[in-house]
Amino acid sequence: MPPANTLAFRLIRHGSEIGRHALTFERKDSALTVLVKVDALVSLISIPIVRYKHRVVETWQGASLVGLIGETDKNGQNEWMKARRASEGLEVSGSKTERYIAPESAIGTSCWNKRMLDGPMISLEDGVLLRPKVALGETDAVQLASGSTVAAEHYNLSGAFNVDVWYDQTDAWVGLAFTVADGSRVRYERL
């Protein structure tokens, strides 16, 4: 968990900010709730061409994931997922998957928890179980929103989705980058 109980990024495309990704961490005894909020808007000559709104609530009891609720709006197309701990394990359903029991090591794709890289991963947009290939790259200097840089391990996730993610020496999430449909690159700068 970050020291201030928040973690936030600005989303950059073609050198301009197109949105924000914020996480809020609420701890009560051994329970942890993580609230995820992502909003992005891409405009062309002041006309919105891409709108993305994503909301997630993660619930943890100690080191165990006990619940997930996700709702996503991609240009008016709504997707959802939910998961809850049941006697047989973490029961997951979503807009693009039938109900299933997730493997015990599976957690959501919210990136804040580096354990996500151990996979498999549960899509927080639609509930699909993902098993991307994870490759450790070089240590990079990752730019923060302040303009300073931080040394971070670079991981490339490929297959089910393609994304680059960076974690600093304390395993804190410091960056993310991916290519969108038009071939442009979106990168996260931590605030």
Architecture overview:
It is a single chain. Helix content is 0%, strand content 68%. The protein has 191 residues and is mainly beta. The strands form 2 sheets. A 13-stranded antiparallel β-sheet has the order 8-7-6-5-4-3-2-1-16-15-14-13-12, with no helix packed on it. The protein has a 3-stranded mixed β-sheet with strand order 9-10-11, with no helix packed on it. The protein is globular, with a radius of gyration of 16 Å.
What are the defining features of this structure?
191 residues, mainly beta, 13-stranded antiparallel beta sheet, three-stranded mixed beta sheet, 16 strands
| Beta strand count | 16
Question: Helix fraction?
Answer: under 10%
How are the strands ordered across the major sheet?
8-7-6-5-4-3-2-1-16-15-14-13-12
Distance between the termini: 15 Å
Backbone shape? globular
Radius of gyration: 16 Å
- Beta-strand share of residues: over 45%
Runs in which pLDDT lies below 50 for 5 or more consecutive residues are none
The description of the largest β-sheet is: 13 strands, antiparallel
N-to-C order of helices and strands: EEEEEEEEEEEEEEEE
Write the layout of secondary structure elements.
Layout: E1 6-13, E2 16-28, E3 31-44, E4 47-61, E5 64-74, E6 77-86, E7 89-94, E8 97-102, E9 107-108, E10 121-122, E11 129-130, E12 133-143, E13 149-158, E14 163-168, E15 173-179, E16 185-190
Parallel strand pairs: 9-10
Antiparallel strand pairs: 1-2, 1-16, 2-3, 3-4, 4-5, 5-6, 6-7, 7-8, 10-11, 12-13, 13-14, 14-15, 15-16
